Amino acid sequence: MRSSVFFPLGCILISASVWAQVEIDKQLSFTGTGIDGSITGIQQVPDASSAVNAGSIQQGSLVYAASSGGSNSFALNLSPAIAAYQAGMVFNFLSGQSNTGPATLNVNGLGDVNIKKYVNQDLVGCEIQNGQFVTVAYDGINFQIISVMFPGSPASIPVASTATGISQTQFTANWSVASGATDYYLDVSTSNTFSSFIGSYNNLNVGNVLTLGITGLSCGNTYYYRVRANNNCGPTSDSNVITAVTNACCGSPFTISHTAGSVAPVNKTVTYGTVSTNLSGSTKCWITQNLGADNQASSATDVTEASAGWYWQFNRTQGFKHDGSSRTPSTTWINSINENSDWSAANDPCTLLLGSSWRMPTAVEWTNVDGPPQNWNTLANAFASVLKLHAAGTLSNSTGALGLRGSGGTQNSSSQGTSVNSNSFGYNNVFCDMDSSNPKATGFSLRCLRD
Known about the structure:
Distance between the termini: 93 Å
Helix content: under 10%
Oligomer: single chain
Radius of gyration: 41 Å
Strand content: 25-35%
């Protein structure tokens, strides 16, 4: 039904003598007279050019909607839709998600506009929370939050720590507890700028743990890792970056600069050869010369100091060099050791001089080396092996004097025989076997291996 309503244009044009007729395609009612008159029957607004009724204003439907979109990309669909952004526009929305960082708002598909706090600052995690009522105003460039913010509690940034358990193909990444964290994200790369990533270690959610084994790596490579803590406010910034170098490929030489002190007796740079073998019962990587030796022995009876290497008393860190006439360091010799203990890991010269992945062989491993199928009987057998064991001699338990160089040698194991005797592997021209009767104060050679 078409209604005709007459309005005195004097109310608009300040002219009391002019009237206009407006045709409205709705059923309307006009009640009252003069300034007390009112029009009723206007329905909810169908588009931006329509007249507004009181209900639309009270409900806020012209400038309010529940938001949709991703955690940092808020979207509103107002009805009727706005045609363009204009400075001064104010919008209200009920957030359907919590932000995790800088965020944008897109109204009626007109494009993403940055949401700012305090005029021009980006948001940080949790400054808009799921279920929060938010009011923003468009300043011609950005949407400024003008409602009260209720910041959440982002997790603290974790601190990455030194890698452990390093081998040729893996290591364990470690980091500290981050307050407020519910889980952590890990990156591993061969680039210190993280321009590429190793396998799945790219923003990998590892759960609420503080260590993770990184596997499938290559020997002799340098890797970098970093972590981020996460909670409902989103992930933190990156932690510090840790460098981890996998062990050199077994079979390849590696160089160590030894510094004189409580372990190495002299300053020396040594290049150690390596070999992979299962002589000890399972495949291990062994050095092919004695610890501290400049080179591998040239024969089973090589008498040079350069091939002899250094000597250690049981469960003591200090190594000794002997050039055939004098011992270095020339400190007072310990001529008796009585302690009911195997060689402690903290005192292992292999670990202290070569790195955390290297260690001394156990008595069981030396027993396997000597046993079937090798069945060594003499020094010649020991030297003919890939380990090239030779007659480097020993240091006397009573005086520290050198003996047997060129005719026999003994290798320390990490296992004791008794509280006063070591369990060591000895060999000469008529003998090749384990011996648990040697005093712990005797100085023996060391070979090192890694798992």
